[in-house]
């Protein structure tokens, strides 16, 4: 039985035709905000810690808690979409991102934590709801569309991290730099409102699609997302510190992280589209994961801080994590029968993935402290890659049973 089969989609009464191009433009506008609000915080972390007088642990907890709230939003997203309609709920989710960003404009620890939790919840909800909207409106080009909106997310995150410090200087404080991301989120909601208003009001009596914990395909996608999410957030957190430990300056290590980020963009855009051409999902998922594994092993065994190797490892790592997330969402869009099932399966997969993303880097930090080095922490990433590889093999290219 396919995940969510036997349950109603969000369709009800009052449906009007919405052009696919309009839906796509709206999704791209919303997606810009699904990493930007949180990506602007790490460059300001030390400034925030000094200004508020908090420990490094508390400052780091802000981001970890936001990621765990993304998991909570992912688990709740499909039910919220069934209750209010995926398109309406999606607008509300990005509205939460705008609200959370605005709350962080108050320079206090409570507002920083509260606003980050709100933003994380909105991001988690939106990620699941977007998957259902793609299945409902753009299923014929699910791979290309998924790649496009993931690239939009990456662009938003890259810009947010790049301008965080200059904005803080120009606007007069770190809190204003964080709050400014309420503006594009609110504008994106305004762009999305016409789409939401022209879609169906859900049938309140219709059954909801529960999270498909018992379905084999859904569990495999959860394992896949757990692996790729841990690889992404693990390297996001520790790539720069790892090479600083090799004797690099913070500025050079930051540039290496930028190369890692840039390499993700073409991978996220091209890999799902190439997989879609002949539905060779396992080949492309395996190939891009192999790039990430080579980069991970290379960084661990041959860091070679004085040569070009780190830049090669960073680019390979970026290809692996850049393609991993959209390929996971693409296979869900292909294998589920309708928007409700797609949202439910995505909710389970993303929720499990964000739990890994929130806890994995913390585990790596503990191992670094205990072992006084990075090999044990990097081994955690290799274990995540092994889990992802197993899921890729089991999912394969055949339709779900």
UniProtKB/TrEMBL annotation:
InterPro entries: MFS (IPR011701), MFS_Cyanate_Porter (IPR052524), MFS_dom (IPR020846), MFS_trans_sf (IPR036259). Gene3D superfamilies: MFS general substrate transporter like domains. The chain crosses the membrane at residues 21-41, 61-82, 89-106, 112-134, 146-168, 174-195, 216-235, 255-274, 281-304, 310-334, 346-368, 374-393. Keywords: Membrane, Transmembrane, Transmembrane helix. It is found in: Cell membrane. SUPFAM superfamilies: MFS general substrate transporter (SSF103473). Residues 21-400 form the Major facilitator superfamily (MFS) profile domain. The keyword Transmembrane helix applies. It is a multi-pass membrane protein. It comes from the Bacteria. PANTHER family: 2-NITROIMIDAZOLE TRANSPORTER, PTHR23523. This is MFS transporter. It comes from Pseudonocardia xinjiangensis.
């Amino acid at each position: 039985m396919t995940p969510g089969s036997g349950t109603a989609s969000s369709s009800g009464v009052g449906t009007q035709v919405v052009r696919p191009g309009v839906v796509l433009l709206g999704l791209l506008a919303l997606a810009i905000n699904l990493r930007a609000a949180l990506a602007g915080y790490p460059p300001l972390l030390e400034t925030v810690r000094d200004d508020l007088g908090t420990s490094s642990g508390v400052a780091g907890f802000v981001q970890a808690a936001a990621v765990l709230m993304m998991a909570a939003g992912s688990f709740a997203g499909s039910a919220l979409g069934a209750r209010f309609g995926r398109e309406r709920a999606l607008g509300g989710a990005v509205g939460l991102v705008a609200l959370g960003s605005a709350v962080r404009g108050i320079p206090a620890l409570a507002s920083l934590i509260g606003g980050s939790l709100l933003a994380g919840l909105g991001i988690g909800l939106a990620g699941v709801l977007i998957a259902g909207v793609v299945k409902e409106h753009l299923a014929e080009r699910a791979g290309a569309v998924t790649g496009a909106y993931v690239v939009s997310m990456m662009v938003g995150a890259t810009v947010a991290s790049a301008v965080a410090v200059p904005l803080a200087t120009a606007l007069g404080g770190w809190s204003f730099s964080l709050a400014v991301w309420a503006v594009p989120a609110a504008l994106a909601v305004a762009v999305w409102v016409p789409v939401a208003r022209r879609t169906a009001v859900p049938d309140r009596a219709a059954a909801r699609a529960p999270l498909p914990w018992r379905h084999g395909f859904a569990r495999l996608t959860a394992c896949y997302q757990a692996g790729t999410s841990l690889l992404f957030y693990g390297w996001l957190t520790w790539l720069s510190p790892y090479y600083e430990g090799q004797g690099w300056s913070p500025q050079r290590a930051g540039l290496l992280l930028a190369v890692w980020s840039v390499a993700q963009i073409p991978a996220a855009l091209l890999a799902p589209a190439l997989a879609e051409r002949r539905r060779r999902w396992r080949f492309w998922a395996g190939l891009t994961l192999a790039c990430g594994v080579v980069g991970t092993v290379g960084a661990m065994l041959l860091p070679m801080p004085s040569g070009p190797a780190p830049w090669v490892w960073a680019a390979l790592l970026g290809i692996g994590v850049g393609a991993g997330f959209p390929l996971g969402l693409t296979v869900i869009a292909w294998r589920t029968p309708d928007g409700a099932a797609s949202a439910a399966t995505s909710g389970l997969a993303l929720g499990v993935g964000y739990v890994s993303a929130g806890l994995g880097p913390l585990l790596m930090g503990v191992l670094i402290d205990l072992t006084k080095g990075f090999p044990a922490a990097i081994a955690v990433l290799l274990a995540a890659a092994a889990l992802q590889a197993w899921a890729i093999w089991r999912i394969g290219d055949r339709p779900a049973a």
